């Protein structure tokens, strides 16, 4: 255990209570990349998205790859890729002359021919000929399929070495240094993840899930993952497809977007219609289509519905100008507050090239976010009453320049997640939270009360001082966007009132108070802070726990300790105070032995729960949680090996 005070600031915050405190300006967002752009697909190495052309520079020092979206990337070390900024760079003309004895019809040959007479070609597989095309060796075929996956689109040989060859495919770029006898992917750092829909954001033991564009496939970046996105059961994607298909038959329109909350079902079609059922599909009394004489409305892309009041919804759809001279909007953002009886146009100042694909909103603050071809935009509007549309602001500073295909908020509305075409998922504090200060848990994303000694973050405020009744509350850290405090160990009663003096003014927050409110610390991807007790190594997918060993869980919210310990002071490294409450732990709901529960030595507000793992455990991911006085923590994912 490192003997120092560790401060956790708001990036793992969970909503407790609105403070009702408003900022005048929005600080710059600190975007962080969730995972990478690589997918595990049981190929020679990790894959990425489709690449249609590959070629070398004339001297062979640079390899270029063009994705099916038209972006060109280059690499000189055959590991790191960067976007090509030279507009003159383009692939050489494809050369596909007839060759004797071609192994496949339509074989595509490498555009850079080798003086030795060696040829490379691709079709369903990659091939090599050492005699000018008279005979061919299959380089990738195995049991009737290609080991590089489907759709081999292009092949290039290095001008410097005829044994160095690269192939482009549906799953990225592959390289061989021995004339095709073995292959290795160049996809780990190629930003070409096929952007689809954000299906879920981190919650408990579940990570970020995406659908892959153009495929009925679902992938997950699980908590603790370090290498690549992993395919998971695609039931959500398939269910949505089947529902759209069924509704298309019922409504006699091609349904392109759906969302259902309680008994309300919202459906959007390929011609811009919005159709609503308030009775779980028994009837469809509301049908709306915006009138625009300058444009033909395109398909409805996405619909957000308020989970508490499904009469409130926001939809995004596209438009096509009637003729090139028209200045019709390329996208529309529409809002309803009466279950689809009428929709207001709140598009106003979105840029002309901001074609929207996804939408998310926070009912409490009126924040609306849209994912567009030119990034993410947000506005603060009234989702409960009709009013004039408000202006949109870009939230894309700090993000790669790429189309945003979807956007989501976490359950508390604190974290904003964006899916960028090619790059994958990024997350940041939701901009509206920086205009509406809240007190949040410093450990996880779920809502829970405060408890004596627990760590809290004040989201959206630089706190200068804090107090509770006549007790000083220590401010452990403060920035322009967040501050961290510790609830006094002396706090009593059913509520705790916290008064804050902040850079922008004074405000008071009342929180429910329990003896214990346990929460396991997780990072922004949902990875729990769990260590091997003997080595101190943090455990994740690459460093799993082992049967029969001890693990240490870092948590907060376990209440009072014995002997009493001062609030705001780091716990001692030797013989730290013990938790008063009885602590229990469960792995896949099976009770475990808790060998130690105490303050974490060298830390403020952290508790260390040491757990003995059984000698016999199932291998793979398992769900862990801790409990005290009937209060359960968040569920987290722990990887197990024998």
Topology:
Elements: E1 14-21, E2 32-34, E3 51-56, E4 63-67, E5 72-75, E6 82-83, E7 108-109, E8 119-122, E9 126-129, E10 137-138, E11 141-142, E12 145-146, E13 152-157, E14 165-169, E15 172-176, E16 184-185, E17 198-200, E18 208-211, E19 218-221, E20 230-232, H1 235-251, E21 255-261, E22 264-269, E23 274-277, E24 286-288, E25 295-305, E26 313-321, E27 331-336, E28 344-345, E29 356-362, E30 367-372, E31 375-380, E32 393-394, E33 404-409, E34 415-420, E35 424-429, E36 437-441, E37 455-459, E38 463-468, E39 471-473, E40 475-478, E41 482-486, E42 495-502, E43 505-512, E44 519-520, E45 530-532, E46 545-546, E47 550-556, E48 561-562, E49 578-579, E50 583-587, E51 590-599, E52 607-612, E53 620-628, E54 631-632, E55 636-641
Parallel strand pairs: 46-55
Antiparallel strand pairs: 1-36, 2-35, 3-4, 4-5, 5-6, 7-8, 8-9, 9-10, 11-12, 13-14, 14-15, 15-16, 17-18, 18-19, 19-20, 21-22, 22-23, 23-24, 25-26, 26-27, 27-28, 29-30, 30-31, 31-32, 33-34, 34-35, 36-37, 37-41, 38-39, 38-42, 40-41, 42-43, 44-47, 45-47, 47-52, 48-49, 50-51, 50-53, 51-52, 53-54, ...
